[in-house]
Design a protein that fits this description.
This protein is of the alpha/beta class. It has ten helices and eleven strands. The structure holds guanine. Guanine (GUN) binds next to β4 and α6.
């Protein structure tokens, strides 16, 4: 069994991003910028946003967080997003999810300019991913693909079972795997007999937030396990969706959780923001040469 070390790879990616930020600053004086919209007091969301901000600082990005109260109106958030769409210092916009119930999340995600949609949640980018065209890809599944690539794990022709069908993780994960020529099944809350599917899987990608959902009897020998779940036990310990201790004994490769996919998500946010900044820097340079 080999561990897929997301912490180590994310550090490597951060160094590469920081290097490119320096070059960008030297060549055109551009500093990549990320704006985060955080609504309410959810401690998990606040913790994630804080980690994202620290990562931005480490690589030399400009970052700004728009902290908004739980009771804020739809119109006020829309106004902020429109302002960020027009702000030339902002290359990427991220709306931390989930949002309060009175907020129309879809409408907000659709308001983000697709070229600043570093989360890859805008239907424009969702469609580009579905048709295997370049665009912004959601950070968590993109991080999983990078992790597999780093360890030379090829998904082509493999039976890949994705457990969870969210717009943030499961669906884009399945799309990326399909684009990489895997055979893909998506299981979800209404799947009966999950075990029937997982037992047939060469690789399992699970991100639903259910502790010990995947147990040793549900996997075949030498399976590759990607644990995208993060939950806190009653004792306060962070764990994934997989019974790591027992499933790891049957796995060829497995991600720890925490320390596997989580750090990769943040690394991909940096990478997506850099990608957006490079496009903007090029547009700026083209404009200057045309003057
Ligand atoms: N909430 C949970 N995961 C994510 C994510 O990847 N992006 C955003 N914006 N919100 C999240």
């Amino acid at each position: 069994m080999q561990l897929l070390d997301g912490r180590a790879l994310s550090k490597k990616i951060e160094i590469q991003v920081a290097d490119e930020v320096k070059k960008l600053k030297d060549t055109c004086g551009c500093t990549p910028g990320l704006a985060v919209v955080l609504v309410g007091q959810d401690p998990a969301s606040a913790a994630y946003v804080n980690m994202k901000k620290k990562a931005c600082d480490r690589v030399g990005f400009y970052s700004i967080t728009h902290d908004m109260p739980q009771s804020i109106s739809q119109e006020a958030i829309e106004k902020t997003i429109t302002m960020l769409n027009n702000d030339t210092n902002v290359d990427g916009i991220l709306i931390q999810l989930p949002l309060p119930e009175h907020i129309d999340t879809t409408k907000l995600l659709e308001l983000v300019a697709p070229e600043k949609d570093v989360d890859g949640f805008h239907p424009f980018n969702v469609g580009r991913l579905a048709t295997n065209l370049d665009g912004f890809v959601p950070c968590t599944p993109l991080g999983v693909m990078k992790l597999l690539e780093e360890y030379n794990i090829d998904v082509k022709g493999k039976n890949c079972v994705v457990v969870g069908a969210s717009n943030i993780v499961g669906k884009p994960m399945a799309a990326l795997l399909l684009n990489a020529n895997a055979t893909v099944e998506i299981c979800h809350i209404f799947t009966d007999d999950l075990k029937k599917h997982t037992l047939n899987a060469d690789m399992i990608f699970v991100g639903v937030g259910v502790i010990n959902l995947i147990t040793q009897d549900m996997v075949k020998d030498d399976v590759v396990i990607i644990d995208i779940g993060v939950s806190r036990t009653k004792e306060g310990k962070l764990v994934g969706d997989v019974d790591f201790e027992n499933v790891s004994k049957k796995s060829s490769y497995i991600t720890p959780s925490p320390g596997g996919v989580g750090p990769m998500t943040i690394a991909m946010l940096l990478s997506n923001t850099l990608k957006a900044a490079k496009v903007n820097a090029k547009a700026k340079a083209d404009m200057e040469t045309n003057i």
